[in-house]
Amino acid sequence: MTRLEELYSKRDVFLDYEVAVPDKLVNEIAEAESVLLENLNDYMSDKVPTTIPESELRGNIIVALEYNDFNLSAIYSSCAADCIALSDMTKLPIEIALEEEDDEEIKSISKSASIPFIVKFDDGKIIKGPEAILTMIEALKYMGLERASLFDKKTFKGFKLVDRRRRPDRISKDGKKFKWQKKVDDWYIYSQISNGTKVECLNEIAKMLGITISIEWL
Q: Where exactly are the structural domains of the chain?
């Protein structure tokens, strides 16, 4: 765990209990972030173009790049010299092609057996969806998405099974958009995993929360 990750982890404890984050911790996080941003600025300065294609635009042009866990997720632009908020800028549509590593991950998932399952809770609740992913989602909702989001024993490209963050979509070679997660009640549930991994995660989350469940393959 890096220094910044450790600080974020400490902050999360205060946020989870809805308690004000101490000023000292806030300042430590800000200082650690500023160091990383300086390094990022040095890196970006060597990558971004120093000129833009000719246009009829005059004056200042502001361009902002938004990254979600190191992946470019959006580009914003504006001609307003005093623009400081992304909400005041124009969001440009972008298509991010699948990387070879992502492509291999998709192939691996598609090869896994698509066998449905049911989840039985010790209070008598039985969840059986038409698809394995829907069964998993409903089981997570029944256990509580916020509580399930605490499960970080297994992550997928840095994203938790239940996360507030969205992994950017990818565009396949044939132009189809590939989504890694399903949005449920303002949470993002990682859906592109094998059914075996779904069952494994549900068992681990139930154990973490002290809930007794049994899962049966159909």
A: 3-92, 108-217
